[in-house]
């Protein structure tokens, strides 16, 4: 009887040991390193519980879609890092984990506070939003709701980043007598009232003043922070870079897609914030950048 009992105990122990090995293999094996010493920066805009049908909603995704993206990042072993870590990596070469990802949102929509924040907290990660200053300072009943400064202070207290998307240059201006519209940040404006084109000096002063004003508003409302600028519509040129640099901007966020490596001042961002970008589509798209 003793022999049989000992045999049963041994079999039980072996069974538990085998089950533990299977559990370890399933849950604790390190995730694959897809890339090292590089960072993927993702771009989103508006997030809602339900995406409206029709109209201009190409940059609006559902709350559930964002949640599925974050679950995919977690399951596949990505590391979502804070903006401050990314800035230190880009400017000073500080170490970052493998598979590093930064989440960014543009335009300062109120949905970042209402919809995005709870999802980020659910996954214990942070994101940053590039804010258009005038949309937070002045209420426009015809525009999508934008965050106010009190909401942004609450976001900042929870680890979120708020940065410069210009004060009032996220629109188009006439570029010639025909009224052809181009991005305000990169265009010498045709002044219809006077029938003349802005001089280069006037144009430079306009964009320098705007970027500087937004930096001042961010500091007044939220305190000192890294000086980062996201280009409205992704449009920039040498003049914009020169004037923004003169205004103290350290990193520039574009909409050009690709990987980011330390030392570059222009940040590439992969657009993840479109309705067609399912988790499978995003994963497939991201893999195309791993070896680049």
Plain-language structure description:
Strand 5, helix 4 (111-123) and strand 6 form a beta-alpha-beta unit. Helix content is 40%, strand content 17%. The protein starts with a helix and ends in a 5-residue tail after the last helix. It has helices at residues 2-27, 63-75, 83-92, 111-123, 133-137, 149-157, 200-222, 238-246, 279-287; strands at 39-44, 46-48, 60-62, 79-80, 100-106, 128-131, 161-164, 172-174, 181-183, 190-191, 196-197, 228-230, 251-253, 266-267, 270-271. It folds into 2 domains: 1-30; 35-287, TIM Barrel (Alpha-Beta Barrel), CATH 3.20.20. The protein is globular and about 60 Å long. It has 9 helices and 15 strands. The strands form 5 sheets. Strands 1, 4, 5, 6, 7 and 15 form a 6-stranded parallel beta sheet that branches. With 292 residues, it is an alpha/beta fold.
Write the layout of secondary structure elements.
Layout: H1 2-27, E1 39-44, E2 46-48, E3 60-62, H2 63-75, E4 79-80, H3 83-92, E5 100-106, H4 111-123, E6 128-131, H5 133-137, H6 149-157, E7 161-164, E8 172-174, E9 181-183, E10 190-191, E11 196-197, H7 200-222, E12 228-230, H8 238-246, E13 251-253, E14 266-267, E15 270-271, H9 279-287
Parallel strand pairs: 1-5, 1-15, 2-3, 4-5, 5-6, 6-7, 12-13, 13-14
Antiparallel strand pairs: 8-9, 10-11
Task: Write a short abstract of this structure.
The chain is α/β, with parallel strands linked by helices and 292 residues long. The chain has nine helices and 15 strands. Strands 1, 4, 5, 6, 7 and 15 form a six-stranded parallel sheet that branches. Strands 12-13-14 form a three-stranded parallel sheet, with helices on one face.
């Amino acid at each position: 009887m003793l022999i049989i009992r000992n045999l049963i105990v041994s079999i039980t122990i072996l069974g538990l040991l085998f089950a533990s090995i299977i559990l370890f293999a399933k849950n604790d094996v390190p995730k694959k390193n897809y890339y090292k010493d590089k960072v993927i920066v993702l771009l989103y805009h508006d997030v809602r519980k339900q995406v409206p049908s029709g109209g201009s909603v190409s940059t609006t995704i559902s709350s559930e879609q964002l949640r599925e993206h974050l679950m995919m990042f977690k399951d596949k072993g990505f590391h979502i890092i804070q903006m401050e870590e990314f800035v230190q990596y880009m400017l000073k070469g500080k170490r970052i984990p493998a598979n590093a990802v930064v989440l960014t949102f543009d335009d300062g929509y109120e949905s970042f506070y209402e919809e995005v924040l709870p999802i980020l907290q659910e996954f214990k990660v942070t994101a940053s939003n590039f804010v258009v200053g005038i949309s937070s300072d002045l209420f426009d009943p015809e525009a999508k709701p934008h965050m106010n400064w009190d909401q942004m202070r609450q976001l900042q207290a929870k680890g979120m980043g708020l940065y410069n998307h210009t004060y009032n240059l996220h629109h188009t201006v006439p570029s010639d007598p025909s009224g052809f519209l181009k991005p305000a940040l990169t265009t010498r404006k045709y002044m219809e009232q006077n029938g003349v084109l802005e001089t280069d000096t006037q144009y430079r002063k306009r964009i320098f003043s705007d970027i500087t004003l937004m930096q001042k508003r961010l500091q007044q409302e939220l305190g000192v922070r890294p000086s980062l600028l996201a280009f409205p519509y992704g449009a920039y040129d040498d003049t914009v870079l020169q004037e923004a640099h003169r205004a103290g901007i350290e990193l520039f966020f574009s909409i050009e897609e690709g990987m980011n490596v330390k030392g570059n001042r222009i940040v590439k961002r992969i657009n993840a914030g479109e309705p067609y970008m399912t988790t499978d589509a995003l994963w497939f798209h991201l893999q195309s950048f791993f070896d680049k």
